[in-house]
Amino acid sequence: MNVRIHPSWKSELDTEFEKDYFKTLTHFVKNEYDKHTCFPPGPEIFAAFDHSNFQDTRVVILGQDPYHGPGQANGLCFSVRDGIQYPPSLINIFKEIEQDLNKPMPETGNLERWADQGVLLLNATLTVRAHEAGSHQKMGWEKFTDSVIKLISENKENVVFMLWGGYAKKKSKLIDSSKHLVLTSGHPSPLSANRGYWFGNGHFSKANEYLTQNGKAPINW
Questions:
Q1: Which residues are catalytic?
Q2: Phi and psi dihedrals of 181, rounded to 5?
Q3: What role is this protein assigned (predicted)?
């Protein structure tokens, strides 16, 4: 399985890749991809780390699980491929951007354009079996992605972390909020958003304001 990952991340994560749990995880994932249809496609498992290199990463958005329907997942949380119908959570993300920044609904749900600007779109679990949500959880991915969050927190400064929903909010304990901006809100899923826990959070303007104040370029959301 030929995965793509930017060299800057490879050097930062080399010691993690050598740990026993990660070798066990790798064996599990290879076995799953050999026997079942899994998403995202093998080369895109580490797409979040390929588009946004370590040095340029200035925003982290945390998702939970890749989409498990055909043709949706492209290795970036909340993102779908060009031409794929927007899932409900992504629609609500775009609606919030529309309200917050007065930007129209984009023509594609593919968020590579964010990732290429230094937005790490990180799912806590990087793979999933087709049509079986959560099927690759608790196999080691969460341990790996927790270590990524800690790595960014410890080795970088003035990064914006967007934690949406209960699961993501728990990750705040991994982040040094004295040198990073941690933004939390309800999840953009319809269940949470329609109860008033998502819309109006202003995360996208707050992120850009913080980045600008700290001498970094804002994100073109």
A1: 65
A2: -100, 120
A3: Excises uracil residues from the DNA which can arise as a result of misincorporation of dUMP residues by DNA polymerase or due to deamination of cytosine.
Alpha-carbon gap, residue 52 to 74, rounded angstroms: 14
Q: Which residue has the tokens 């004295």?
A: 178
Give per-residue pLDDT as tens, 41-77: 999 999 999 998 999 999 999 999 999 999 999 999 9
Rounded to two decimals, the pTM is 0.96
Q: How far is CA 7 from CA 4, 44, 62, 171, in A?
A: 9, 15, 22, 26
Among 208, 127, 178, 159, residue whose Cα is nearest residue 57: 159
The answer to whether the CB of 14 falls within 8 A of the CB of 54 is no
**Can you name the residues that pair with 120 across neighbouring β-strands?**
60
* Cα 97-98-101 angle, rounded to 5 deg: 70
- The token pair at 118 is 């230094």
* Residue 219: other Cβ atoms inside 10 A: 17
